[in-house]
């Protein structure tokens, strides 16, 4: 069976990746409807050997659509419910519905069965949460996680195409001795680190940090897991990196952790530090796996573990995870 698929936000960084992943994974697309803002309407999009014209996103555009993949941003708030009302199953990459109890929040390697409870909309978690819970899941199953302390090193791609271009521009301008004028970020991002992603909220945490706290509990179905996060923007193009410290109920050694991680779905363990083998954005971009390395016991507490988790933000962090959710909809026959 093939499906009528709409990609909302088709011309942005995540939208472009969604189209690429749909084609790469041979998703059963009967017809494709690339949607974007009026400004992008008319652009030609090659897909699966055909060319499609980008249309402006309107309510009527969702008539006859079976699956609507929303790349994120304001279109989700404006059209996701409308699309579902018109019969499409929505996979939404924005944060609009993630904490809605009626909306499953899904990482296929962690809680695939949750897609069965959808009522028209399924939410794709935040990119920094996705890669972390893929790595947490096998440890949680083996030793029950009590607490997570995570610091992130997030690529500029998380802030979209303009942000990717801004990094390139600033490096060039600085090389030419020019002054840089930050546009997407609050400060120059080239050769800098900015501890500020999204807006500041309760307890002076950013919304990005609260997303990691709250989404983790929902995806893992365990409110007892305590999470604290510091999220930082770094001058890297595509992959997010995370330093993850875990405290578990039961003792798990570094060797046991490496074993359970290596046999878990969606994970590649790259961990031979003496041979300089550890995950880095240099090698993880354009890949779908979550790479884990620097696995070692925490020297400061009884049942603690450190690990370094790196993954491509546009792929596993957004587009691949969304298409994998759409594949689950077909597998579980809940379209
Ligand atoms: C970021 N996680 O990295 C946020 C949204 N993609 O900017």
From TrEMBL:
Q: Name one GO biological process term.
A: diaminopimelate biosynthetic process
A GO term for molecular function: protein dimerization activity
Q: Which SMART domains match?
A: Semialdhyde_dh
Where along the chain is substrate bound?
A: 154, 233
Q: Where does NADP(+) bind?
A: 11-14, 39-40, 157-158, 313
Query: In the UniProt record, does the keyword ATP-binding occur?
Result: no
- The residues annotated as the active site are 127 (acyl-thioester intermediate), 240 (proton acceptor)
Which residues are noted in the entry as phosphate-binding? 98
Q: Which residues form the Semialdehyde dehydrogenase NAD-binding domain?
A: 4-118
Q: Spell out the reaction equation it catalyses.
A: L-aspartate 4-semialdehyde + phosphate + NADP(+) = 4-phospho-L-aspartate + NADPH + H(+)
Pathway(s) where this gene product acts:
Amino-acid biosynthesis; L-threonine biosynthesis; L-threonine from L-aspartate: step 2/5; Amino-acid biosynthesis; L-lysine biosynthesis via DAP pathway; (S)-tetrahydrodipicolinate from L-aspartate: step 2/4; Amino-acid biosynthesis; L-methionine biosynthesis via de novo pathway; L-homoserine from L-aspartate: step 2/3
Q: Which UniProt keywords apply?
A: Amino-acid biosynthesis, Diaminopimelate biosynthesis, Lysine biosynthesis, Methionine biosynthesis, NADP, Oxidoreductase, Threonine biosynthesis
Enzyme Commission designation: 1.2.1.11
Major enzyme class: oxidoreductase
Whom does it interact with, and what assembly results?
Answer: Homodimer.
Which PANTHER family does the record associate with it? ASPARTATE-SEMIALDEHYDE DEHYDROGENASE, DEHYDROGENASE, PUTATIVE-RELATED
Family statement drawn from the similarity comment of this UniProt entry? Belongs to the aspartate-semialdehyde dehydrogenase family.
Q: What's the stated role of this polypeptide?
A: Catalyzes the NADPH-dependent formation of L-aspartate-semialdehyde (L-ASA) by the reductive dephosphorylation of L-aspartyl-4-phosphate.
Q: What is this protein called?
A: Aspartate-semialdehyde dehydrogenase
Upper classification of the organism: Bacteria, Bacillati, Bacillota, Clostridia, Eubacteriales
Gene responsible for this protein: asd
């Amino acid at each position: 069976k093939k499906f009528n698929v709409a990609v909302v936000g088709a011309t942005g960084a995540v939208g472009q990746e969604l189209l690429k992943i749909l084609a790469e994974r041979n998703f059963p697309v009967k017809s494709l409807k690339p949607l974007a803002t009026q400004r992008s309407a008319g652009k030609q999009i090659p897909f699966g050997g055909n060319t499609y014209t980008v249309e402006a996103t309107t309510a009527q555009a969702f008539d006859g659509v079976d699956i609507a993949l929303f790349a994120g941003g304001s279109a989700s708030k404006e059209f996701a419910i409308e699309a579902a009302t018109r019969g499409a199953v929505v996979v939404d990459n924005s944060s609009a519905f993630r904490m809605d109890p009626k909306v499953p929040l899904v990482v296929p390697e962690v809680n695939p069965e949750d897609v069965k409870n959808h009522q028209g909309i399924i939410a794709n978690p935040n990119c920094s949460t996705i890669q972390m819970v893929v790595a947490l899941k096998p440890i949680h199953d083996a030793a029950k996680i009590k607490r997570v302390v995570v610091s992130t090193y997030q690529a500029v791609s998380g802030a979209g195409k303009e942000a990717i271009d801004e990094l390139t521009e600033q490096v060039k301008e600085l090389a030419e001795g020019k002054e840089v004028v930050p546009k997407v970020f609050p400060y120059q991002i080239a050769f800098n680190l900015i501890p500020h992603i999204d807006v500041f909220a309760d307890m002076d945490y950013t919304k990005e940090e609260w997303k990691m706290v709250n989404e983790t509990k929902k995806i893992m179905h365990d409110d007892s897991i305590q999470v604290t996060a510091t999220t930082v923007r770094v001058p890297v193009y595509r992959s997010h990196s995370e330093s993850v410290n875990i405290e578990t109920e039961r003792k798990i050694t570094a060797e046991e952790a490496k074993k359970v991680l290596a046999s878990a779905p969606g994970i590649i363990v790259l961990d031979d530090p003496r041979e300089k083998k550890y995950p880095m954005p240099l090698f993880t971009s354009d890949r779908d796996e979550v790479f884990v390395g620097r696995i070692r016991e925490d020297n400061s507490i009884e049942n603690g573990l450190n690990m370094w988790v790196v993954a491509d933000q546009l792929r596993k962090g957004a587009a691949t995870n969304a298409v994998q959710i759409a594949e689950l909809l077909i597998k579980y026959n809940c379209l």
